[in-house]
Amino acid sequence: MSPAPQPLPLLTQMPPQEPVSSCAAPEAYGDPQAQPFVLGEEATPAGPVPRVGGELSRADRRGSLRVRLGFGRHDYKVVPGLYALNHPGPNSPVLVSANYKLSFDHLRQAARDLDAWLLVLDTKGINVWCAAGKGTMGTAELAARVGSSGLERVVEHRRLIVPQLAAPGVAAHTVKKLCGFSVTFGPVRAGDLPAFLAAGLRADPAMRRVSFPLAARALLVPVELTQALRTYLWLLPLLLLLAGLGGLVGGSGFWAGLAGPGLRAVGAMLLALVAGAVASPVLLPWLPGRAFSLKGLWPGLAGAALLWALWPVSFDAELAAWCLAVPALSSFLAMNFTGASTYTSLSGVKKEMRRAVPLQIAATALGLGLWIYALLAG
Amino acid sequence: MPGLQYLKNVASLSANPELCVGCGLCVEVCPQGVLELRDKRVVVARRDACMECGACMTNCPAQALWVEAGVGCAQAVINSALGRKGNGCCCVAEPRAAQQGLQTNLEAAPPRKSSGCC
Ligand code: SF4
Ligand code: SF4
């Protein structure tokens, strides 16, 4: 059953110049020439344009590694504007990019054998897909950037090649109306650009589809892990402290509590983290169920089984607590991977959350209650 | 490898073939292969694959498509439920129809709520 068609927004109207969002102050960018990856200048009728190459330097690679590990992802930017890749001329293609440096580096590396213009939009340092969803990689910014870069004096043609994943934000027909350039959506993956250009701006269907292969999921794991650690690390000292206090109250003493249930708690939490933020993303296609919260349950249950197998005594309230909490936490962490995945929808996420979050909270709360009971019972 | 498919019967996508002019741009921009042209009219061929990105709606010159566009991100849903900002996630949790409403009528449109990193 589908909802009735709703009145459609008039996309043909002139959008506001800035995406209407007041949460970020206008960005002040420095001199594009001063960026370490700029090799020189390319003279154009619209003035000199910074020139870059397609080889990534050691500093570029270090930067990529750093953001892939989840550090400083929100401050990895390129100064927006026009760049020359190698030695383009008035008939060279114009490739549009976000100003997230990882996207920019990815593009110039993929197109390293081409002479092209790179038009870098101000997406506040956010990648193409997210920026298109937010509207910063959008119609208004693209048209404005075409104007401010003097592109119509630099090239003789009137064509922009925009990554397909920017299409949620870029309305091709409106761009044409606003600045006279027509938009051709390039392939989803920058790596397909040379083939796309060689084929006369034709993408075969495979170039138009997003996929989510193992390598892509594995690349996201470090970010997931750092993110989860950053958000939940404070829980570990808290659990240790609680275990110590429980030892005091229960009679075994602070240090015995800390070394016993405390360390076991840390171990169980790390197990939940690995199950939810590492095993679930990596094993995604093989885990039963469609909902991510369900997929995350299985590694969590495996973690609980492992805990049971390693447990010093046969079964007690403390173990029962973790058998509840570990799968629940794993399910929750796996659900958070919807954001990094390439095929989830907002309606779907909301639906699965309505069902899963109450259960996750109930299981965790019950587990916590059992754990505290076990501590006090000594 | 088993295919990855998200929940069934949730996508808010709807198409109005009456308005369609058959330009095919929606088919081109859809990253999930949801739409097809049959007899020069748009057809929703694989509804359950729709990720509600809104690319088709944004690029349809005839306004023949509608979807409650947004990003399928649990963290963003949590962030916006908690009214939290400045978190590491860069998704917008609120349906984009509201944001695009802004482009139509600045006064009447509700303020756009975004969550996550901006
Ligand atoms: S919303 Fe996105 S995924 Fe859904 S049909 Fe449109 S372009 Fe395809
Ligand atoms: S973009 Fe609109 S007009 Fe063009 S084929 Fe799709 S539905 Fe029809």
TrEMBL record, chain A:
<feature type="transmembrane region" description="Helical">
    <location>
        <begin position="296"/>
        <end position="313"/>
    </location>
</feature>
<feature type="transmembrane region" description="Helical">
    <location>
        <begin position="232"/>
        <end position="256"/>
    </location>
</feature>
<protein>
    <recommendedName>
        <fullName>CO dehydrogenase/acetyl-CoA synthase delta subunit TIM barrel domain-containing protein</fullName>
    </recommendedName>
</protein>
<feature type="region of interest" description="Disordered">
    <location>
        <begin position="1"/>
        <end position="32"/>
    </location>
</feature>
<feature type="transmembrane region" description="Helical">
    <location>
        <begin position="356"/>
        <end position="376"/>
    </location>
</feature>
<feature type="domain" description="CO dehydrogenase/acetyl-CoA synthase delta subunit TIM barrel">
    <location>
        <begin position="77"/>
        <end position="195"/>
    </location>
</feature>
<keyword id="KW-0812">Transmembrane</keyword>
<keyword id="KW-1133">Transmembrane helix</keyword>
<dbReference type="InterPro" id="IPR016041">
    <property type="entry name" value="Ac-CoA_synth_d_su_TIM-brl"/>
</dbReference>
<feature type="transmembrane region" description="Helical">
    <location>
        <begin position="262"/>
        <end position="284"/>
    </location>
</feature>
<feature type="transmembrane region" description="Helical">
    <location>
        <begin position="319"/>
        <end position="344"/>
    </location>
</feature>
<keyword id="KW-0472">Membrane</keyword>
<dbReference type="Pfam" id="PF03599">
    <property type="entry name" value="CdhD"/>
</dbReference>
From TrEMBL, chain B:
<dbReference type="InterPro" id="IPR017900">
    <property type="entry name" value="4Fe4S_Fe_S_CS"/>
</dbReference>
<keyword id="KW-0411">Iron-sulfur</keyword>
<keyword id="KW-0479">Metal-binding</keyword>
<feature type="domain" description="4Fe-4S ferredoxin-type">
    <location>
        <begin position="41"/>
        <end position="70"/>
    </location>
</feature>
<feature type="domain" description="4Fe-4S ferredoxin-type">
    <location>
        <begin position="11"/>
        <end position="40"/>
    </location>
</feature>
<dbReference type="InterPro" id="IPR017896">
    <property type="entry name" value="4Fe4S_Fe-S-bd"/>
</dbReference>
<dbReference type="Pfam" id="PF12838">
    <property type="entry name" value="Fer4_7"/>
</dbReference>
<dbReference type="GO" id="GO:0051539">
    <property type="term" value="F:4 iron, 4 sulfur cluster binding"/>
</dbReference>
<dbReference type="GO" id="GO:0046872">
    <property type="term" value="F:metal ion binding"/>
</dbReference>
<dbReference type="InterPro" id="IPR050572">
    <property type="entry name" value="Fe-S_Ferredoxin"/>
</dbReference>
<keyword id="KW-0408">Iron</keyword>
<protein>
    <submittedName>
        <fullName>Ferredoxin</fullName>
    </submittedName>
</protein>
<keyword id="KW-0004">4Fe-4S</keyword>
